[in-house]
Structure prediction request, 215 residues.
Amino acid sequence: MASVTTSVTSVPTPPRRNLLPYRLATQMVFVLIHVLLIRAAIPNLAWAIYGILFWAALVYLTMRTGRWVCAWICWLGGAQDLFARFARARVSFNPRWTQIGVLVIAALWVPLAWLFWRDAMTAHTSSMGFDAENWWSHALHLGLLAFVVGSVFVLGKRGACRYFCPFGMVVDGCRKMHQASSQPGLVTLKRRRVSPTTPAAEAAANATTNRGEAA
Prediction:
């Protein structure tokens, strides 16, 4: 019997698109937005509420869809990626405590500031827009950007994100709490199933019990 041989031709996979230029362009847009429109200022109550809702939505989206926020939108991450070719890690330490410290500062600095500047809580101004009179607020914002860019030469690629940004730690903590709440407990109580009995079966069981007692 003659054997029949079949040849299988592999289908070439299409080349993957290089998304790095598009990602850098998107990041630079958000860098310019922050540099031109956002300044370091104490937010009023309305902006504080908007900020809490905004970051809660980002945490939820990151839990569901991945860390595309860090890769495409974060302006501080984009500034580090722009200088990634010059990155060199010279210092290494445990980022756990620095991330917790930044998280505590981010959560408490606004309420503590309201204790000293109570007018800021009810002020009608916001932290958006260019303000030439309060140039120092823009200088502080640019100082933060300069610090993050300079960290690339000391902490390496995305060093500021790794050692100082608490966003990933918050996302991981929320994901673990969600998984723990969705899993069943270690101890489960099972309800014993009782089969329905007829009067005849109940009389037979009682007769058997009486004979056992008489014996």
